[in-house]
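ENTRY TYPE: protein
WANTED: fold as tokens:
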Amino acid sequence: MSAQTQLLPLTRSSVEALSERLNDPRWMRDFRLAAFDAYEALPMPSTSDEEWRRTDIKGLDLSAFHPDPEAVSGPVTEAPALPSGVVFTSIRKAAQEHPDLLREYFMRVCVRPEESKFRALHGAFWTGGTFLYVPAGVEVSVPLASSTWIQSAGVALFPHTLIVAEPGSSVTLIDEFGSMAGGWSAFVDPVVELIVKDGAKVRYIAQQDWLAAITEIGIVRGRIARDATLHTLIVGFGGRIVKTNVESLLEGPGGHSEMLGLVFGNDSQHFDFHTLQEHRAPNTLSDLLYKNAVKDRARTIFSGMIRVHHGAQKTNAFQANRNLILSEGAKADSIPNLEILANDLRCTHGSATSRLNEEHLFYLMSRGLRRVDAVRMVVEGFFAELFDRVPLEGVRLRLQQDVDRKMVQ
């Protein structure tokens, strides 16, 4: 990060300087400035707000962080192997090479800056990310990958992922978020927009493994049209405070959403996940499974909402949150919610929190296992149901390795 970038504060004049540095088209510059105006007008969330009641960020000093336009964030898959018409590039290049396409979708039809202070801040200072466009009827058979990497203290990073899947298309994107290890701090404000049109199929996987004292506040939102399918897997291993909204908006009949989540917290990590399964059309299906494990003094919060609108008959919605507490000082909160405005549907929600069962451990140890290996076997069994629902072998192997690493941290 250059000295010039280090001195760039989160101010309106910095928005203008950043826009000039990135050579934004005029419409993007105007978009950034309007987003910054929204940021200044919107209140900072506090524990008096229901959604933030269990996550206190009053110690977050945004003036201590500076945007880094040189940060590594974008596609890592070679583009030449892609089918004709597929656009897989960085958001920056898309603004230059596909301005009309990007302008139609970027924070306009899925996530909007005026929704919250942090989404407005993202709209003003986004500095990298991935744009993936798949034309109608095109199937991308090989999973694509993008990466966001932090290697400097004091940066504020605003990665943006935008997927537009036209009718009948199919694609998988694996988004990785990581950093160098250390006691230094940074701030990350990501936005993920998943636009899944009629009959399209999208699988989105976010693998987050910050190895520093990073505060992350972000959103993943999908809009699911008629007979479309969206699979999401959100993984959280790192960071100091992580606050993420994961939302599926089922807007067309026959829409299907699978929402998977895996969190493993240790030390004093704090993870707060709010999920939304919003059924706006009839004959839609959503199926959510989030599994959290905590040890030491870590804490997880899961707050899930199933909302069924008037007229969304024949809805099927399932929500399950399971928590495993591995230490006396760890804590897991689970708040499942329902808002039902239709009368011909099937909705179930539930949560369960358990601690290590000493009898189970004794049984395993009586068969010759060390206690540490017995605990590892219990944890692997706890996550097995979720692993089984991930069809990509490489992703499953990576998750198992990361869980094993967290066990010994």
Q: What stands out?
A: The CA atoms of residues 243 and 313 lie 32 Å apart. The longest strand covers residues 213-224. DSSP finds nine helices and 21 strands in the chain. Residues 3-251 form one domain.
